[in-house]
Each structure stands twice: as C-alpha cells, then as structure tokens.
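Quick one - inputs below.
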Amino acid sequence: MKWPNHGGQPETMKQLFGINQDSELLDFSANLNPLGPPTWLNSALADHYDTITRYPEPTYSRTTASLAKSEGVEENQILLTNGGAEAIFLVAKYFENKKAIIVQPTFIEYERACLHYHIEMEDVFLEKEKEFQLPLTCILEKLSSTDVIFLCRPNNPTGTVVKEEELQVLLEEGKRTGTFVVIDEAFVDFLPVSIPSLTTWLEMYPNVILLRSLTKIYSIPGLRVGYMMAGPTIIHAIRKEQIPWSVNALVDAMVPKLLEDKTFIKQTRGWLEEQSQFIGEALTNLAFYRSPSNVNFYLLQDKRPLDTDRLFQFLLKNGVVTRHTHNFKGLNGEYIRLAIRSKKENERLVYLLQKWRNES
Ligand SMILES: Cc1ncc(COP(=O)(O)O)c(C=O)c1O
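Output:
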C-alpha cells in the first residue's frame, strides 16, 4: 500500500480504497480550523486582485512590521516565508552538512529537509508510555555532538506540548554546547491561553529558532503563509538564501488583516474547548485511547493496535477520512490521527466509533 505522505487528500483516499468518486467524505485527516477561513477573506482577496499585476515589495516591510507588532519582537527578528514548509527548508539550509536530532514521531518535513541539505540525523522518541513527553536525559547526553534539534510544539501528530522547564534546560545546555533548538509552533494559536507561545524566549536564548504557519489556524493551506523568528544575525543570514518574491502579493496584503482579527482566534478557542471536551468524554466512554493533546487533533488507538488499519477502512467506507500514521516514525500505523471538527461532524464521528465498537 502506497499511503499518502500528508493528510487532507480525500480524493486520493477514494482512489486508493475504491470509494465512489462522487461520494462525500468528511475530512478528519487535515488538522485545519473548521471555523476558517474568516468570512471576510473572500471579498478582501477580491478587493486586492490588482496586487497580482505587480511584484510584491521585496522586503515585505509592512507585513513584517505587523507581524513584529503582533508578536512583540523587532522587525529584524522576523522572516516572512511561503508557508511553514519554506521556513523548515530555509532553516535546514542554514544547518547544511551539520548534525541534527529530530524528536519523533513528528511532522515528516523536518526529515525531508535534513536529507535535502545533507544533515546527519539521529532520532529520539516521544513514547506513549511516557505520555509523549520529551526524552530529555537522552537528548542531553547527545548534545555536545549535535548542532541542531528539531522539535514541534504542540507536536504533530500527538498534540502534546514539551514542558517549559525541560525546554529551558535544553536551551541553557545548548548555549554551552553551541546547539540550536528549532521549535515549530505551527499549531500554537490553538493552545489554551494558559500555555503561551515561546516568543519572549528569543531575548533569553540566542540558540532558539521559532517557526510559524498561518495555514492551520486560518484554514488557508492554498495561500501559503508562514514566518520564522530568531536573533537578527540568524534572520539576516537565512534571508539571503530565500528566493526573491517567495511570498506572493495577495498574502502580503492579507497578513496584516488576518492578524487584526482577534475575534476569530477567540471564537476558535471557544469552539475548541467545547468540542475537545465533547470528544474527550465520548472517547473515554467508548474506551478508546486518545493522546494527551492540547490542540485541535489527537492520536486515537483502539484496544488492539493491530486493528487500526481495519478501523481506518471502516471509517473511510462510512464517509470519514482520517490520517494514517504509517509514515510517522515510531507509530508504525498503530494509531490514526483525527482532527477536531465542527459539532455536527464530531457527532457523526462518535456515532461511527460507537457503531465500530458494537460491531467489532
Ligand atoms: C507541524 C507543521 N509544521 C509546518 C507545516 C507546514 O505548514 P504550511 O502549510 O504553513 O507550510 C505543517 C503542515 O502540516 C505542520 O504540520
């Protein structure tokens, strides 16, 4: 079976599993905000149609200034990128031919980027038995021979968050050994306000590089917008490697408006709190394992992990596409990743899981 590399490909799933092309699938495989995109975006994009007739302003100064203001950092600490994906590849280029640790299971693109830039990789693993927490001691032992650590916080696919105290130990030690820590915060806006982003750490730790994406929170994967934050010297060096006009003019015009829409983020947090609770209780009642996620997706496992492919196919045949975990290192397909969707969609999912429980 040639499983797709990423979620959000219901059409491919239909083809792979012989599902009628005309049938509707609910997509629980992509971890996008179901409240998005914000309703005003449609007409705002149309209003800025003319921007496509000109090159974007090469330094994206207005957008960079609005990002800096929103994050509370200096403009020279920010680089706008063509999605979080470009930020990952640019940062990997910065560590070309060096040595990296990747905290697995995680987003597959860190590994692809490291391979591309001939970075020697070593994996360390978050384990279910330890609530998917950071294997700090194991990483510290390897630190003096490591140039960079890639970790995702909140982590895709577990939804878990590395503890601040542990990260601080890592960054302090990293200062001593000359090790950088790249933290992908693509899902940070889904976290409850009680778990803040790490932006304020940029001042304390010159060895931290933060990666961001606006894709997930605003549900705009087709627009391609992300950024990175780090010390001015790193940003300056990485900027030199970025292709000119990497981010298109429509994105340049939309980012300041997206950042202004605080109501949308507030509504998102309200929806997520309510629906996480609903899903959490339903899965506990049905005796499924759910990873201790803090965000809008989680790993699900039935009592017998070997049943996972059957559960995946059962849901698919009943109109729900989920994310397989065959290409997440350490998970070996023994879980499925599910997004938290709208109330109606979540209820449908719970109904199907109940049906699966009754039938299996
Ligand atoms: C953890 C993580 N980082 C970055 C990305 C890439 O996001 P973007 O669409 O902004 O390139 C993804 C996409 O799935 C992701 O899961």
